[in-house]
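User:
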Amino acid sequence: MLIALSLALLAGPAPAQVPLVPAQPDPADPDATLVEELVVTARLPGPAWWRVSKGDSVVYVLGAPGLAPKRMQWDRGVFERRLEGANVVILPFKGLKVKLTGAPGALIAYLRLKSSTPFEETLPPDLRARFAAVRERLGEPAKHYGTRNPLAAGVMLISDYREKSELTDAEPTKLVRYLAQLKKLPVEQKAYDLAPLLGAISRTPKSGGMTCLEEVLAEAEAGSAATRAAAQAWAVGDVRGALAGERSYERCLNAAPGALAFDARAKADQAAAIAGALQKPGHSIAVVQLRPLLSQGGVLDRLRAQGFEVKTPGEE
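Assistant: Predicted structure:
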């Protein structure tokens, strides 16, 4: 359960066109609105890259899908050229750890979430039937989801669904790390303490948790076709098509207390890492998930506000 919670808190049909500005923006969703001039189809082969520069220093930023098939194939030509001689490779700040000083708090939060009663037994009949149908399709017993918290149950269920569907949020980051290490390049990836996040989940209002559970069930019931189509769009530099697979239940995790502050902190840390790399002549590589990269108040928006030059994939 701890692993599932930490993972979250971090040829198919053509993908639908994603609205860059939603008709009714949600103030609780920090990635709802995208910066239109940054959402550009790539000219070079393979996935889209953005270029952040200051003087004779450049950071090439690869926008990564939020979810993709495991072992996804993509044209690595541009990436491998840019990897040569890079000063540093900056990876998405999603790695979570429980600090020793926070472990007792994490354990207490976990015990508050855990229950001997299967979660589905707490649901009204319609939701109970949907939850049980997805669970049975995944081959999991009811007792596997022993929690009183709907947000925790949803996170566990979606983690199981994505694992069985061979979908992951670790690509292409996992491959980028491996190839960078082969070349003995410095790799930077910040890890955050898990304990406060577990505590936040345990304090999430039931209404917010139930909203997330609905999102989870809808994603699992729909299947992986849309996700795979968006990943294919990402692989050929179709940014709008790739973004069509970016909005899932993750947006409702902001119902957890402190989640918006954590999101802002992560974006600020990623922007700071890129800005730090620009203090050294030469070039570096950064990988940032597409929504946090391109949203208003996102990583590129923050860097532009700090005076760095940002070029789009259409300008390469």
